[in-house]
Amino acid sequence: MMLETVIPIAYALVALAFLLSFWRLIQGPDAPDRILALDTLYVNTIALLVLLGIHLGSAIYFEAALLIAMMGFVGTVALCKYLLRGDIIE
Amino acid sequence: MIDILLSLLILTGAIFTLIGSLGLARLRDFYTRLHGPTKATTLGVGCLLIASAVHFSVREEGVSLHEVLVTLFLFITAPVSAHLLAKAALHLKVKSLAALPAQDTSTAPDPALQRDPAD
Amino acid sequence: MRRLLPHPLLSLSLALLWLLLVNEFSAGALVLGALLGWLIPFATSRFWPERIRIRHTGVLLRFLGVFFIDIVRGSFLVAWLILKGPKRLRPAFVEVPLALKTDLAIGLLANTISLTPGTVSANLSADKRTLIVHTLDTGDAAALVAEIKQRYETPLKQVFEEENA
After folding, report:
1. Residue numbers in B near A18 (CB within 8 A)
2. For A46, which residue in chain B has the nearest alpha carbon?
3. Does residue C39 sit in the same domain as residue C108?
4. What are phi and psi of C94, to 5 degrees?
5. Contacts of C132 (CB under 8 A, 6+ apart)
6. Measured between beta carbons, which residues in chain A are less than 8 angstroms from residue B80?
7. Which residues of chain A fall below pLDDT 70?
8. Cβ C136–B82 below 8 Å, yes or no?
9. C 40-59 residues inside an 8 A Cβ radius of B
10. What's the pLDDT score for residue B111?
11. Fewest C-beta atoms under 10 Å: which of A54, A82, B7, C115?
């Protein structure tokens, strides 16, 4: 089956994407860079969960992907707000 | 037939996800790095989600459309976080390859910024 | 009618959102979705003082078509620029003067700019007159501004701001 061969390749590509984003997270050099790297890691996680869902034939991973999408966005906005204002809740 | 379509979608999605992260790691200043994750990665994950929707609609009884929800959510939130990140970087005057725009004085009188850091 | 159903469009999208979330199309889900679609705008109507009016549905549909094509085009362009290497990029900040007035239209324009080829909106001046846009690779800034205004701003203005349609 074709999917059986494609999915491991896709896993490898997404894993590489993880490593590159992680490198940027460690490397920096500025706070916005790190936040951007974190945001990218969230989106990569969604990609990985969706792939897992297709691979294992289970729709349960979808809920996790949805939650990570929401929490990731809220986290990014909160961190940006902190950089802009020095405060999150005004 | 469906298998070929699915494989194509999954591969395109994974490649775009990788290219987005590659841009994040490879480009030289913050503002150019911002472009990779907002566009390439978003489309990549969008492709994967569509593949998932097709897969579950074919395999199981009934249509599975809730992946559309995550796709929509990502396409709405990605530009918002990119805008906020760029705004934060401009505020912090992160160094840039392009000439920074003239500082917007109108954002200066912000009460939250003028608070004494000691209190 | 206005008091009971303050935002019909919001209600409709909330009901649709609920149906997508439970991922089934049954009578129960439909009833609950309709209930939520009515209750949430009703309870939060103070947050939405203005009622959204959409004029020129045809223009809106054509704009959506252009938007989706440009998302794909933009992603391919950015992917290509990333693969080509950072040395040949010509990044720049460009100021786009805005003809739009309402917050909704400006927000939509900023989001559209961020998702379409080579540009990310970076800052909105406090008087809401200019939008600062960062482009990844540009030769001619004036042409880019003209393209943004003609391709995205004009239809958005027609759809959300034109008074006597």
Report:
1. 21
2. B45
3. no
4. -125, 140
5. B90, B101, B104, C93, C94, C95, C96, C121, C122, C123, C124, C125
6. 73, 77
7. 1, 87-90
8. no
9. none
10. 43
11. A82
- Examine residue C2 and state whether it is found in any structural domain, yes or no: no
Range of the domain at A28: 2-85
Same domain, C106 and C28: no
Residues of chain B with pLDDT under 50: 105-119
Across chain A, mean pLDDT equals 86
The residues near B118 (Cβ < 8 Å, ≥ 6 apart) are none
Q: Is C108 inside a domain boundary? A: yes
Sign of torsion over alpha carbons A24, A28, A33, A36: positive
In a domain, A90, yes or no: no
Please, which residues have CB within 8 angstroms of residue C84's CB and are 6 or more apart in sequence?
none
Residue stretches of chain C with pLDDT short of 70? 1-6, 49-51, 163-165
Distance of alpha carbon B23 from alpha carbon B14, whole angstroms: 14
Tell me, what's the pLDDT at A12? Answer: 92
* Yes or no, beta carbons of B91 and A73 under 8 Å apart: no
CA distance B115 to chain C (A): 20
Give me the residue spans of the domains in chain B.
2-96
Q: Is the ipTM of this complex over 0.90?
A: no
Asked if the structure places residue A66 within a domain, the reply is: yes
Q: What are phi and psi of C24, to 5 degrees?
A: -150, 155
CA distance C71 to C114: 9
Whether B94 sits inside 8 A of A81 (CB atoms) is no
Please, what CATH class does the domain formed by B2-96 belong to?
mainly alpha
Mutate to test the interface with B, among A3, A42, A43 (most CBs of B within 10 A): A43
Number of domain units in chain A: 1
Question: Is A16 part of a structural domain of the chain?
Answer: yes
Domain containing residue A46: CATH number:
1.10.287
